[in-house]
UniProtKB/TrEMBL annotation:
Residues 17-163 form the N-acetyltransferase domain. Keywords: Acyltransferase, Transferase. Signal peptide: none annotated. It comes from Streptomyces collinus. This is GNAT superfamily N-acetyltransferase.
Amino acid sequence: MTWTVTPEPYDSPVAAALWRAYYTEVSDRWYLLHEGRRTEPAELEREIAAQPGADLAPPGGRLLVARYDGEPAGSAGVRLLDGATAELTRVFLHEPVRGRGGAPLLVRAAEEAARSLGAARMILDTRGDLVEARGLYARLGYTETAPHNDGRYAEHWFSKELG
């Protein structure tokens, strides 16, 4: 079984399916933790439609899709915030392929995409309950920093110099 990571149009059917899977998982995790319920279908549809991912399109962004043995397995997005800083977002792998080396490969590909956009630094935010993500970022050299945004769900902020 092999991994590949390639750019993908943000509005492709593959990108849409991965965005839906990502958003469903992180939203359900938040609601189950805080309210003891899953995301309501109408809210899920509204939020997915409100964030289509156009900011991940060239020239200022990239959406990357990881494939495991040729099948779409995950994604990561990069958007250039200014001439030197890019933001990593939407890092996701389907549960059955987690633990098989895809996440570090995907994040490193996103870092390379950020460099190609001219970024020297990558930033990101995540939630406290996404402990797997926080562990991944720490293993890949990201340092927890002071807040760089006031996102509703942002609880931990990270940064990495891309060199």
